[in-house]
Structure formats: structure tokens, C-alpha cells
Amino acid sequence: MKQRAARGPAGALADKIHRYRGAILLVSIPFLLVSFVLFLLPRSPAVPFLSAGRKIVPGGGGGAAADAGSKSYAVIFDAGSSGSRVHVYCFDENLDLLHIGVEIELFIQKKPGLSAFAKDPQEAANSLIPLLAKAESVVPAELREKTPIRVGATAGLRALGAETSEKILQAVRDLLNSKSSLKFQPDWVSVLDGTQEGAFQWVTINYLLGKLGKTHSDTVGVVDLGGGSVQMAYAISEEDAAKAPKVADGEDTYVKQLFLKGTKYYLYVHSYLHYGLLAARAEILKAGGDYSTCILNGYNGKYKYGDDVYKASAAPSGASLSKCRSDAVKALKVDEPVCTHMKCTFGGIWNGGGGDGQKNLFVASFFFDRAAEAGFIDPKVPVAKVRPSDFEKAAKRACKLNVDDAKVTYSRVSVENLPFLCMDLVYQYTLLVDGFALDPHQEITLVKQVQYGDAFVEAAWPLGSAIEVASSA
Ligand SMILES: Nc1nc2c(ncn2[C@@H]2O[C@H](COP(=O)(O)OP(=O)(O)OP(=O)(O)O)[C@@H](O)[C@H]2O)c(=O)[nH]1
Asked: Which among 105, 142, 145, 197 is annotated as catalytic?
């Protein structure tokens, strides 16, 4: 019998395994059988989201850090018209959010947005470098090549037109190609269509509230007022979805089907380009003559939006709430074109039919910002329950002031926004009650962040995009 060379502890162990191999096999067969059967058991069906992918388990509370193997990161840039922002998220294997350091997401924003560099695409791309560097620094080096990075441009770039926006996007793709160590695909740098932006925002808010997987009646609706566009999205019944008007080729459909945690949602979503807060100022001033009854008394200046410059001068008698309101209603084109559907919001757009999915509205972005600056909500709270009539009351107060008194009264309002405070508040009230036909006294929730476990997450569309890209990994 061949003498085995003396071997160390590992060799002794190997000898023991060899000697008792029969018994080991006998014991391990049932375990192997059980794990094979478990693997075959139907798990909740793979739940594709906006695209096919692994099941979504909704957020329920910032899980403790999972081991590195099951962690996945996502880096999403929100290239908005009024600024660029980067969000970094970390998910566990159930797509629950995990902490990144002490926070639950990395969120950094900077102004101006990409559309401010319309004439210099390279400058536009370079403006993202500081955000990219910070984003990469929080992703563990060993995970970077597996971490998707997406850049979603919104109404700001939509308004620039295809040629100019594409030059900026290509400069961003070249930058990511050359400077980023993250997982990048050219089509992950794009102009989000407005319905995608609205759908992602709806997923973000309902994910953070733990409502994904519930019936459509238990979900909340969202309104997101950006600078260039405003989105509304809420879940409707299958019956109402069947009544959705057909749209012309190339136009966004009114209803998207989403599959989230085994539940099929029919999401009514529409984005109104040129009706974001900053774009609406141009629409209102365009309609005016030598002066605007929406501009605070004492101001005589100009308003630049995109490549256009508008006269922005106060009327001799100063701002007038009632006159400004009629200018805002005119700008909304509430009755043009004539509504050919069952019911419309404004601009001839179908209103989605309403219903339980719209009864709770979470209203974000500039709605929250102006309410905080006008002082009727605390800027330090993440959410605040208000009524559309609060915007009217705040407008009544602001429109009476001249720009010098307003500077004292509204210390949180920036110098460039001050002359437009009356206009912004009047427009926001008009958008809610004349545009979206909300009851002036119904309760709505202004939201900046949503509590998630022991932390707060930004109430913005990038999380919805991160969930989609992480669930299709
Ligand atoms: N705290 C916080 N503020 C945000 C976030 N996203 C946008 N905002 C703010 O909300 C306001 C409107 O931003 P957006 O809704 O992105 O609008 P926009 O940047 O003009 O982009 P468009 O959609 O292109 O019009 C700005 O004051 C932003 O600073 C976010 O994720 N967190």
C-alpha cells in the first residue's frame, strides 16, 4: 500500500473526509434534495417594472447594511432645467434601500442645469464632473464596474430642441466614457420623456410610502412642478384605462402599465411641457403688453427663459391678484383646444378620469419650494399638508407688496425670484384649481423628502429610475 507522505492538518482532514466519504454522502443527500426543490418552488413571479426584470420588493425601511455580495448601487443624474443633481442609492437583494454611510442616499445638486450651456456642450458635460466624482467616491471600488450610471435630462433639454440637446448629451456620453469607472451604456444618457419622468416620480413616492403591491386605490397620486414642465401621475382602474383616448402617432400615451410586486398598475401620466414654473412665467409675460399685473410693484426688468427675453415690468398700479389670475388662466389655455375627451385638465389633455388613486396627492418640487419661501410651510419639514387655497392666500399677501418691502418680508426668496413671487404663487394656485380642477379646500401633501426607516429620501424621480435599472440587472 503506497505509504502516504506525512501531511499537515489539512492532509489529516482530507484523509478523514476520504475515509468517511460514504457516510458524508448519505447525510448530505436529503439537504441537496431539499435545496433543489426549494430552488424550483415558484417564487413570486418575476415582476418586470417599466422593463422586464427581477421582482420588486417595496421599500419598508432602510435595511441594515447587507453583505457586500448582495449590495447593488445605482447612480442617477437628474439633469433638470433649473439645476443638475446626482443621487446614489444602495439596494439589498430585495431592492430595499440600504444606508450609504449615515445617509440613505447621496444627494448633491448644483446650478445651473445643462440647458444653461446650450452653446457649449463640453462646458455642459464638464459641469457634471464634481457631482460624478462625489458619486463614485461612495461606491465601493470593487462594485463600480457593476454599478449603472444614468443621466436623465428633463424639460430643460426637451425645450432646447433635438439638435442642441443631442450635442450636449453626446458630450456627456463622451465624458462618462472617458472619466467614469461605473457601468455605462450610451442610451442611459437621454432626454427622459415627460411620461417616464412622471411614472418614475410615482414609483418613488409609492415605493417610499410602502404602497407598491397594494391596490391602485391605496396608492397616492403625484404632481411634480419643475421649471420647464409639470407632471401628474396617478393609478386608475383597468376599466378607466380602457377608456383612455387614443393619441396621435409620436405622442405619449396617457396610460402606462407597470408591474410592481406582483401587482399590475394602470398609471395615468401626463407631462405638460412649457407649464413648469419658469416656463409659465414666459407664457404669462408673452401674453402681456408693456407691463404685467403679476410683477411686484417697483420692478422694471427683463425675464430670460431659454433663448428668449421678455419685458418684466410692474403695472403702474402694481400687481393685482385678480388680474394676474386671469392672465394665468389665459396662459394655461384651460379651454383650448376644445376638450374632445370625457373631461380635460387644460390644453385639451384628458384628465385620466380621477378616482381613488388621485384622492391623495403628493405635490413636489417648486410647489414645496415656493410654499416654504412664502412662509406658509416650515422649510425644514420633509412633508406638509396644505390646501390649494393656501397658495391663493399667500399670493394675496405677496401681490400687495412692492419689491423692496417684499425683500424684507420674504427673506428666503432669492433676489432673482422676488419680483415673480406674486406670479409664481398665483400660477401655482391656478394650475391646481383651474388646471387640475382640484377643490381649493381639499388637502394635498407638499413633499420634499419621504421618511424611509430611520432616514429621509428625496421625493424625486431618480429613485424610480434606480429601481428600474436595479431590478433589470
Ligand atoms: N431637495 C430636492 N430638491 C429638488 C430635487 N429635485 C428637484 N428639486 C428642486 O425642485 C425645484 C424644481 O426642480 P425640478 O423639478 O427638477 O425642475 P427643473 O430642475 O427645473 O427640471 P425640469 O423638469 O426640466 O423642468 C428646484 O428648486 C430643485 O432644486 C431633489 O431631488 N431634492
From this structure: 197
